[in-house]
Amino acid sequence: MDRINNKTLLSILCAPGDNTLSVVNPATGELLGHIPTQTEAEIEQAISLAEEAGNSWKQKTAKERALVLQRWYRLVMDNQNDLARLMTLEQGKPLAEAKGEVAYGASFIEWFAEEAKRACGDTIPGHTGDRRLLTIKQPVGVVGAITPWNFPLAMITRKAAPALAAGCSFVCKPANQTPLTAYAVVELAYQAGIPKDLLQLVIHQSPEVVGRVLCASETVRKLSFTGSTRVGRLLARDCAPTIKRMSLELGGNAPFVVFDDADIDAAVSGALASKFRNAGQTCVCANRFYIHDDVYDAFMDKFIAAVDQLTLGNGLDESVFVGPVIEASAKQRLQRLVERTVEQGSRVVKGGQPQDGLFVEPTILADVEQHMDIVQEEIFGPVAPVLRFSSDEQLIAMANDTIYGLAAYFYSRDISRIWRVAEALDYGMVGINEGVMSTEVAPFGGVKQSGLGREGAREGIEEYLETKYLCFGGIQ
Ligand SMILES: NC(=O)C1=CN([C@@H]2O[C@H](COP(=O)(O)OP(=O)(O)OC[C@H]3O[C@@H](n4cnc5c(N)ncnc54)[C@H](OP(=O)(O)O)[C@@H]3O)[C@@H](O)[C@H]2O)C=CC1
Ligand SMILES: O=C(O)CCCC(=O)O
């Protein structure tokens, strides 16, 4: 704990006051501490300092930037256990998942340290004999970012690492519920040699204030946001006057489909991971289950038995698979959603019992129909509505019947069907016989109202680069 908790956290935490924010453990309600917030003027100042720091950072060679990022990667991994514990304390996810998130978050730093050296332009066959055409890649400049509480570390590194690798500076507002992990990972970046002004966190009691300052700033050339579609729309509106580049990772409504030729055991284990990791609070979590009539009973029996084995509790307890939800309003929203779905004609076949604190029992709802609200809403909690289908055509129509287009999952062993369905699903990411597909090497992102742009993979760094075209004339 030395490197992070004693030194860093004690220097971040402060006495309660007007300009502070309290951080609470969602599993116990215990107060973890207070952190200072910034004023609007201080956030503006942070942007100016970031711009200045970016001027020298972008002059470094890609290899120099890569070496600093590699050191950051190493420090994050060396502190994996401490970071994970801190994350579980403020976010609630089970410790094993938190360790997984630290490694996942670190993998973006490692990946983009490598990609920094591959930000190549092109030479273009000329359109006349006396000209030579080429492109170079340059950093977009100051990047503003706003990240959510469900992945307090990885959503920062998935944006900061490609931005810094490209030569940009980075000013980020972490979620107000989970700032401690954010401060700890950024402190490790400073220890690795990333200049303090280049990578900064800004916090305010009101997220709207930070959003307004970042969006209105002419210095901030790009905004990268992960969070709800509702807030994504507001930010897109507020970025319009300055015509900022935007990356938006927004909400999802993932269908999880089990065809009649599926391996049912594999589908059940994929369903558990996809639906219940992080207590169902990820934008790629399975949101609605479509099970073919012919395998419905077989799937449901096994799914209910498997969910029965999931332990609910404080994520610090190693036997726990499902932690608390993030706050009281999330729990109330989930309870209301289950009640409404039952009123609309569905049945609770597993879970649904009242729990203390912020815990929500893993719940399965049967007899759900396409017209019910739960099928259109992002659930963001450990509740699994199950529907039936009887033909591929009907399934594709139902799966695509949403404003969202982030992730979809299906289980089948028929290769023709696999291609047909994968191509027909209107989603940015499709898991085929697989319930968890996130990795730094593949492009993460959605279509429709799930967002713009891709994170990770070779596409990830492009989001932070401008392409400049150079036309050389007068060649003899
Ligand atoms: N990855 C995803 O797709 C995520 C989706 N969600 C969805 O959003 C729902 C609500 O979760 P919530 O955390 O409230 O998500 P939000 O979209 O409200 O929050 C995400 C981030 O945006 C900030 N934010 C909130 N309002 C504004 C604003 N007006 N201007 C600028 N920044 C803002 C938040 O700050 P603060 O923490 O201070 O509120 C947080 O840092 C979830 O139930 C889920 O459906 C949520 C998180 C992640
Ligand atoms: O829910 C999110 O905000 C991001 C999904 C996490 C991942 O799988 O990358």
From TrEMBL:
Entry superkingdom: Bacteria
Q: Which residues form the active site?
A: E249
Q: Which GO terms describe its molecular function?
A: glutarate-semialdehyde dehydrogenase (NADP+) activity; succinate-semialdehyde dehydrogenase (NAD+) activity
Please indicate if the UniProt record lists Ubl conjugation as a keyword.
no
Check the record and name the Gene3D superfamilies matching this protein.
Aldehyde Dehydrogenase, Chain A, domain 1, Aldehyde Dehydrogenase, Chain A, domain 2
**One GO biological process term:** gamma-aminobutyric acid catabolic process
InterPro entries with a match to the protein in the record = Ald_DH/histidinol_DH, Ald_DH_C, Ald_DH_CS_CYS, Ald_DH_CS_GLU, Ald_DH_N, Aldehyde_DH_dom, Aldehyde_DH_Superfamily, Succ_semiAld_DH
UniProt-listed NCBIfam families: SSADH
Family in the record: Belongs to the aldehyde dehydrogenase family.
Q: What is this protein called?
A: Glutarate-semialdehyde dehydrogenase DavD
Q: Which organism is it from?
A: Parendozoicomonas haliclonae
Q: What is the lineage of its organism?
A: Bacteria, Pseudomonadati, Pseudomonadota, Gammaproteobacteria, Oceanospirillales
Q: Which gene encodes it?
A: davD_2
